[in-house]
Write a structure and sequence with these properties.
This protein has 8 helices and 9 strands. The chain is 26% helix and 16% strand. The N terminus is likely disordered. Strands 8-1-9 form a 3-stranded mixed β-sheet. The chain has a two-stranded antiparallel sheet with strand order 2-3. Strand 2 and strand 3 form a beta hairpin. The protein has 2 domains: 38 residues; 193 residues, Alpha-Beta Plaits.
Amino acid sequence: MNEPQNKSRRGFIGVAAAAGAGLGVAAIAPGLHLIEVSQANPTHAPSQGASSQVRWGMLVDTTKCASGCDACVKACATENGINETVQDERQVAQWIRKIDLTDPKSGRRHSLPMMCQHCAEPPCVDVCPTGASMKRADGIVLVDRHICIGCRYCMMACPYKARSFVHQPLTAQNPEVPRGIGCVESCTFCVQRVDKGLKPACTEACPEGAMLFGDLNDPNSEIAQRIAREATTRVRADLKLDQGVRYQGI
């Protein structure tokens, strides 16, 4: 292809990108990602980029988490536009779910939210053939839906069953949280909120204050101080994944 034709194509893609940004179109053209459009629009751009100096994490106090409470689950669904109705319960998108555990020795019961653990060594990233499963510099594990091919290797690799596959077309989405049929998805720590200096929706919705979000790398943060002075547990710590989510009371 000669140079004038190349220039023509670049010009067309540039126009398409500008038009797509104005219309909120998810897929604009090959190689153009939503993040590029977001960064080009200062009203939607995050206040700051991901930094390796930060390690976002969550601490869940299971002694405060009631078995029948699902406020965190509902808040997640509302914030991230998870509202589809399916006939097969196995196809329900669950970015966060409540599970009940029973200690076989003491009989003591625990209720806790389970979501993506945002591992420092995420197995989902290791097995992804396209690089769609990725970890940001600040430790948040995400899926790039533009290059996810729906192979679901990451779902099989996740020890926490934290990922879901979108089986059907979606409507009434949150424009800040694009979702799409044929893609894998999971908890993002509400990255669209974190990048604005806010907390994940689940932590704000918890009526008992059982969920604490913050910077694990900052020794002065509340979460780092709590972990330093109180006993906490990582689920399946034997896997040595350095999970970003910790639990207290189990």
